[in-house]
């Protein structure tokens, strides 16, 4: 299958290893991955903070860039959620029904990484090897908006060498929420403290998730505690093999 990668702003600017891991994983599974260079932001940040007019050109750009792609993979539950649940809404808000319909068609072919692997490619064991104690945080958008369910956990359970431990109160938000963490710093910090307490209670070496944004938030807190627990994106774990270590 020919799969287009929408890498997301955070992966492009701060966590490029996530994009590289996604490509490495899918190519190992026998698929061709293309990277349309014209891609930009999905507009989630603008939409979530009420700047819908500013989001509209980004929606149009996403549709223009990915409209001819068979399948699009996104290593982010929140950005996938924006494409699937916000793009057509933004277009309709400004009376562009044609764009809204095009956006819906592209959104139907846009998948978060675990969705693509399990639902589209029919793979639960990707041949990964990761000999570490790991706990999984289900991010809010993947859990509640995409309803990714146990797909990430099914993939992780098939990773050779992994010691996968359950995260207490896993479904509780980490407190990031994009600009929520900036506008409501005290509340966000309190929520982060609860999440870090849960992560540390597992004794895990690594906390993983499908969103770089939440991992950045959790990882920042853990680093300030010198806790010795790392944050690693799901794609990077699934891309790991015995040969790559």
Give the count of helical stretches. 14
Shape type: globular
Count of distinct strands? 8
Q: Provide the domain count.
A: 2
**Quaternary structure of the protein:** single chain
Write the layout of secondary structure elements.
Blueprint: E1 2-5, H1 9-13, H2 16-28, E2 32-34, H3 44-48, H4 52-66, E3 71-74, H5 77-85, H6 87-93, H7 97-107, E4 110-112, H8 113-120, E5 133-136, H9 140-145, H10 151-157, E6 163-165, H11 180-183, H12 185-201, E7 206-209, H13 212-224, E8 230-233, H14 234-239
Parallel strand pairs: 1-2, 1-3, 3-4, 5-6, 5-7, 7-8
Can you walk me through this structure?
The chain is an alpha/beta fold and 245 residues long. It folds into two domains: 2-120; 133-239, Rossmann fold. 51% of the residues lie in helices and 12% in strands. The strands form two sheets. The chain has a four-stranded parallel sheet with strand order 2-1-3-4, with helices on both faces. Helix 13 (212-224) links the parallel strand 7 (206-209) and strand 8 (230-233). Helix 4 (52-66) crosses helix 7 (97-107), helix 6 (87-93) packs antiparallel against helix 7 and helix 12 crosses helix 13. The radius of gyration is 18 Å and the shape is globular. The mean pLDDT is 95.
């Amino acid at each position: 299958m020919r799969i287009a990668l929408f890498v997301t702003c955070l992966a492009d600017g701060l966590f490029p290893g996530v994009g590289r891991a996604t490509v490495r994983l899918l190519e190992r599974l026998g698929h061709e991955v293309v990277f349309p260079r014209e891609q930009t932001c999905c507009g989630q940040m603008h939409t979530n903070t009420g700047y819908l007019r500013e989001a509209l050109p980004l929606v149009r750009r996403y549709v223009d860039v990915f409209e001819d792609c068979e399948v699009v993979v996104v290593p982010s539950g929140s950005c996938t959620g924006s494409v699937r649940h916000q793009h057509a809404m933004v277009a309709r808000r400004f009376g562009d029904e044609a764009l809204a319909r095009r956006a819906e068609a592209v959104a139907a072919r846009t998948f978060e990484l675990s969705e693509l692997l399990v639902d589209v490619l029919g793979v639960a064991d990707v041949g990964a090897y990761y000999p570490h104690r790991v706990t999984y945080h289900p991010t809010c958008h993947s859990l509640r908006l995409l309803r990714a369910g146990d797909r990430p956990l099914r993939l992780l359970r098939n990773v050779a060498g992994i010691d996968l431990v359950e995260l207490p109160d896993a479904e509780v938000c980490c407190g990031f929420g994009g600009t929520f963490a900036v506008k409501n710093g005290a509340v966000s910090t309190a929520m982060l403290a609860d999440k870090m307490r849960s992560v540390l209670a597992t004794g895990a070496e690594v906390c993983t998730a499908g969103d770089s944004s939440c991992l950045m938030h959790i990882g920042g807190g853990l680093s300030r505690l010198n806790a010795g627990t790392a944050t690693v994106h799901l794609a990077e774990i699934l891309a790991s093999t015995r040969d790559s270590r």
